[in-house]
Every structure is written in structure tokens, then in C-alpha cells.
Design a protein that fits this description.
The chain folds into three domains: 3-70, no CATH class; 100-320, no CATH class; 343-605, no CATH class. 76% of the residues lie in helices and 0% in strands. The protein has 26 helices and no strands.
Length: 624
């Protein structure tokens, strides 16, 4: 059909639809029918008149209606109310068995603390610390046993306590990712501490006094820990019992559910902090009736919202109890290597390819690279045992392991460059490798072909990392776009390290600005992920792991610090594997982008196809 005939046949329908789309008071059935026909006309126009104005007109018409129907609207107040009256209660109901498990385990831990304190009066000193015990004994002699709650100004105390409550709850939640072990440890340590604390005061004849004091705020505070523990168990159970989902998909779904429960605790944190900072300090002045009333009301609110109300909501919406999660489908993209990429495209394509190749990368890492790293770690620990057997900051143990600063040893430099070179090679190997069988044998063959020159590159990088003062690393980042080209040149052009080093400056200057931005983005990603391991708030994975291990083995092993450092190494290995793999894929993207600027190979390929018709869409009318 000619374009003029197509327009003449449909223009009345289009005009009618355009008029209706501008008016809010219409027959919805008529608008829906016309919208369906318009989209069919648009599909036809895209096929037979792709470069004509009718296609542009229909696209704008349908897009305007589609946008008005599906655009993101402002969330009304009802969504906020629904979160507290429906979403949270239903999520708590789904996690009711986890809630019961967390509560019973916490009570059992408190009983352990009570029994231990009863039979060993010094147990409280181990749990609470000698300093706290000595301070409290001095307060008891002064006639103010709970004076610890009145030492600090209320305002600063509120923020400090609220932050600490959030920190403990977060640890209980995040501990679920350690197959629930971390969550159980937080519940165990806090339960034992509560039991030992209360029973130590019982031995002093102050059980009732301290009960009426600490539970003014403890009703909210301890309840929040137990509920956060239930959220952590929800996360961990999703990891342990994935059902028909993949383990990653199940973890994502369960983490989302657990996070909903954790977020509901925000008002509880605030109330606990406010009561401890501004009310508990007046424990001696307040009548017993007032203190009992606060405690009973606090527990009643927790029980009403987190125990009774979820059953009421579940009975009201039985069809919403079971949630069927649908995994997000991410279609595979065929990577176009001959393309000039902006920094944002380099970043997006890098992570897209990384996700697609993660399975293959993991096989290579855990089968070949990780065992070698373990052997090197054993050697380092055997030779530097005494250095590890102390309480170091993370950067001390990090330096001892990799030989930075005053801990430098030549065998560390030469040794760690080997797994580094293998990770570099693995990143470039999976970029274009599409086969699924015999992955390891093909990688070994690929590695043998390029290993010597890639090893020299890895040695150069590691030497820069070790010998360059921290402030100079900032300036060295400015030449990053040049030296990042070296491994890509070695592998893509099958050349040696020295030739690649000579060419990297000439090649890198072709896209220096974009390469620098992409490199800075990569550094930012590295810092963010390292922040997950270590951060000033002591909420990183390493801090959680160290605290858990230290309290678990400190009384059983004299060299417990060495054991903790050895476990930390595992996370260092995963971190560097992930970051270096991303870096190599990113460097490969930048290399191809620069090559396209210089050679325009992809552009010439597209020009060769320019003007050639796709016979799938040709008709006789196209030639009239």
C-alpha cells in the first residue's frame, strides 16, 4: 500500500483518537480499542514507511498516550499508610516462625547468661568488661546503681545510642547472609549479656531496681534486636533453602522481605533511644507505677503490632499471604566491539558482560587461581606468623599479606604477581569466549600463550602499588588510561609487553578524556566495594566476621589473631578477583573504543550495508 493510501484510509481514526486523548471524560472501551489500532498502524508504518513522516506522527501520538497512562506518579499518602497497615504486617506474618525462633533463641541465650553468672560470679566481668563492672560497683556504693544513664547530655546520648541500636540490628540482619550463623551469634551474644547483666545485679540485691530501670528503654531496644534477628533469619533461609529459584535469586527475594521488616524498626530505634536518653536517667525520681506503666505499654505496643496485628491482617487478606516471586529476565545482548563508547556506555557494558560471564569466571577462579592464592597465603603465614599473631588494624594485616611498606619481601612481589596475571588473563579470556565446554583447558592454553607478557604487566602494576607513596597514586591515576591499554594490546594484537608499552601512549591519547573518566568510575566502584569490607562505622563484612570469630575462639586458641587474619584473606581474594575482573573487561572496552576512533572498522562495516534493502520487508508497492 502506498503511503498516501495508508494515510487516507486511517486519518479519520487518528483524528478521533487524538481528540479523545486530550479529553479526560471518554468511553474507556473506545479509547482502548483505538489505542490498540493505533499501535498496529504504528507497527505497520515502521515496517513499510520507516523514514516517512507518518511513522513519526503515529509514534508521537501513541507515545503521548502511553506516557500519560504509565508515567511514574507521585506516591500518595495512602502508599505510606499501606506500608504500615498491610505490607509490614503481612511480611511479619510470613516470617512468624523466624520471629518465634529468634525469640526462643534469645531467651535461651539469656538463661545461659543467668546460669553462668549464678555459678561463676566473674562471668559478668568477661561479658560486660572489667571497666563497666568497676564503674557500676562505684555507683552502687554511691547509692546510684544506674547512674551510667545520667553521665552524658541527653541530646548527644540520643544520637549515640540510636546509632548503636541501628548498628546491632543491622549486624543481626546482615549476619543472615552467613547462612544465618551471624544472626544467631548476635542473638546469642546479646542474650547472654542481658542475662548476665540482670543476674549480676540480683547478686547485689538490686534485681527489681535494675529491672524497672533498664526495661524502660529495653522493651523497645531488646525487642528490636529480636525482630532484626528474625529479618536476618529470613535472609539466611532464602540462601539455605532456595527452592526452585537459583540461590542468588532466592537471596535477593528473601533480602527484600527481610529489609522490609528491618525498615519497620526505625520508629522502635527512635523510641528506644529517646527513652534511654531522656527518661531512664530519672529512674530514682519516677514512681514505680510510672516505670511499670512505661514498660508494659512498650511491650504491649510491640506485641500488638508484631505479634497480634499480623494475624489480623493475614486473616483479612488471605489471598496475599503467599507471594509468588518472578525472577527478573535480562535478555542477552550481543556485544558490538566495534563501537565508540562514552564512559557511561563503558561502565554499563562492562557490568552487563561481567554478569553474563560470571559463571565462567568463577569456574576459572575457584579451580585454578584460588588454590594458588591459598598456597601463597600459607607460605606468607608460615614465614610471618609472629607478625600476624597480634591485634593489628586491617591495613597492617593487609600490608603483611601483600608486602606493602615496611613489610615488603621480594617473594611476595614475585609470588602475588602470578595469580594477579591469571586474573588479568581470565578477564580478557571470557570477554569474547562463547563456548561452554572445556573452559579450563581452553583457558590454560590461552594463558600459556600470553602468560610471560601478562605476568610482566602484573608485576609492573603490583610494583606501582607497593612502592608508590599514597599521595603519588593520585597523580599516577592520570596515566591510567595509557597503562590500561597494555594488557589489551598484548592479547588483542598478540604482541609482547615491550611493544605494548611503547604503543599504549600513542593509542591511549586517542580517547584520553573518556578513558580517564571511565578509570575514575572504576576507582569509585573499587572504593565502594572495599567500604563494604571495611568502614569507619564498623559495619563491614570484615568487622562482622572478626567480631564473631574473636568472641568464639578467643578462649580456645592462644593464636586466635592468626586464625582471624586467615579467614579475612578469603574476602580479600574475592574482592580482588571481582574488582580486577571488572577492570580488565573495562580496559578491553576502552581499547576497542579507541581502536574504533582510529580505524573506524565498525563504521566501514555499517557503510558497506548502507542502502542495502532488507528483503523481508520488500513488497511490489515499494517499487511503484
Amino acid at each position: 500500500m502506498k503511503e498516501t493510501d495508508f494515510i487516507k484510509q486511517n486519518k479519520k481514526k487518528w483524528a478521533r483518537f487524538e481528540k479523545l486523548s486530550l479529553n479526560k471524560n471518554n468511553d474507556p472501551d473506545e479509547v482502548s480499542q483505538l489505542f490498540t489500532e493505533i499501535t498496529e498502524d504504528l507497527s505497520y508504518a515502521r515496517t513499510f514507511y520507516p523514514r516517512r513522516s507518518v511513522r513519526v506522527y503515529l509514534n508521537q501520538l501513541s507515545q503521548r498516550v502511553f506516557t500519560s497512562l504509565y508515567k511514574q506518579r507521585k506516591q500518595p499518602l495512602g502508599s505510606f499508610v499501606k506500608f504500615w497497615t498491610e505490607t509490614v504486617p503481612l511480611e511479619v506474618y510470613r516470617a512468624r516462625y523466624n520471629m518465634l525462633t529468634a525469640f526462643l533463641f534469645f531467651v535461651l541465650a539469656a538463661i545461659v547468661g543467668v546460669i553462668s553468672t549464678e555459678y561463676d560470679p566473674d562471668f559478668a566481668s568477661i561479658v560486660l568488661g572489667d571497666g563497666y563492672i568497676e564503674m557500676t560497683e562505684a555507683n552502687i556504693e554511691a547509692g546510684k546503681p544506674m547512674d551510667v544513664y545520667g553521665d552524658s547530655p541527653g541530646g548527644s546520648m540520643f544520637f549515640q545510642i540510636t546509632f548503636n541500636n541501628i548498628r546491632v540490628a543491622f549486624l543481626a540482619f546482615a549476619g543472615g547472609i552467613l547462612f544465618t550463623l551471624g544472626t544467631f551469634w548476635v542473638l546469642l551474644s546479646n542474650g547472654i549479656m542481658v542475662g548476665a547483666f540482670q543476674w549480676w545485679f540480683k547478686a547485689k540485691g538490686l534485681l527489681f531496681t535494675t529491672f524497672l530501670t533498664i526495661w524502660i528503654h529495653g522493651a523497645f531496644e531488646i525487642s528490636a534486636i529480636v525482630i532484626a534477628g528474625a529479618a536476618g533469619l529470613t535472609v539466611g533461609n532464602g540462601l539455605i533453602f532456595p527452592r526452585s529459584y537459583s540461590r542468588v535469586q532466592s537471596l535477593i527475594f528473601s533480602a527484600k522481605r527481610g529489609l522490609t521488616i528491618l525498615l519497620s524498626l526505625v520508629p522502635v530505634f527512635i523510641m528506644a533511644g529517646a527513652l534511654e536518653s531522656f527518661v531512664t536517667r530519672w529512674y530514682q525520681e519516677m514512681p514505680t507505677f510510672v516505670k511499670l506503666t512505661i514498660i508494659l505499654v512498650s511491650f504491649s505496643l510491640i506485641i500488638a503490632y508484631y505479634v497480634i496485628y499480623p494475624f489480623i491482617v493475614a486473616r483479612r487478606y488471605p489471598e496475599k499471604i503467599e507471594v509468588v516471586e518472578v525472577p527478573r529476565y535480562i535478555p542477552q545482548r550481543k556485544m558490538n566491539w566495534f563501537k565508540i563508547r562514552k564512559p557511561g556506555e563503558v561502565f554499563t557494558d562492562t557490568f552487563t558482560l561481567m554478569i553474563a560471564k560470571m559463571s565462567k569466571l568463577s569456574r576459572i577462579f575457584f579451580s585454578l587461581i584460588f588454590p594458588l592464592a591459598v598456597i601463597l597465603t600459607i607460605i606468607v603465614f608460615a614465614w610471618d606468623w609472629s607478625r600476624f599473631n597480634h591485634s593489628y588494624y586491617w591495613y597492617h594485616s593487609f600490608g603483611i599479606l601483600f608486602g606493602t611498606g615496611r613489610y615488603f619481601e621480594y617473594y611476595k612481589l614475585l609470588g602475588w604477581a602470578v595469580p594477579l596475571a591469571m586474573i588479568v588473563a581470565a578477564g580478557f579470556f571470557v570477554m569474547k569466549d562463547e563456548e561452554e565446554d572445556r573452559v579450563l583447558s581452553r583457558f590454560i592454553k590461552f594463558l600459556g600463550k600470553h602468560f610471560i607478557w601478562i605476568y610482566m604487566y602484573a608485576l609492573m602494576l603490583f610494583a606501582i602499588f607497593i612502592f608508590t607513596p599514597g599521595i603519588l597514586l593520585v597523580f599516577l591515576a592520570l596515566i591510567g588510561p595509557f597503562i590500561n591499554m597494555i594488557p589489551a594490546i598484548i592479547i588483542e594484537e598478540n604482541t609482547n609487553f615491550f611493544t605494548a608499552f611503547g604503543r599504549c601512549f600513542d593509542l591511549g591519547k586517542g580517547g584520553y578524556g573518556d578513558g580517564l573518566v571511565a578509570f575514575m568510575a572504576l576507582i569509585a566502584v573499587s572504593v565502594i566495594f572495599f567500604f563494604l569490607l571495611h568502614n569507619p562505622m564498623e559495619m563491614g563484612i570484615i568487622f562482622i566476621l572478626d567480631d564473631f570469630l574473636e568472641q568464639a575462639i578467643i578462649t580456645s586458641f592462644d593464636d586466635y589473631a592468626v586464625i582471624i587474619q586467615a579467614f579475612n584473606v578469603f574476602f580479600y581474594m574475592l574482592y580482588f578477583f571481582f574488582i580486577i575482573s571488572i577492570a580488565m573487561i573495562s580496559f578491553g572496552m576502552s581499547y576497542h573504543s579507541v581502536q574504533e576512533r582510529k580505524t573506524a572498522k565498525g563504521l566501514y562495516q555499517r557503510l558497506d550495508k548502507f542502502g542495502k534493502r532488507n528483503r523481508n520487508f520488500e513488497t511490489k508497492l515499494d517499487f511503484e
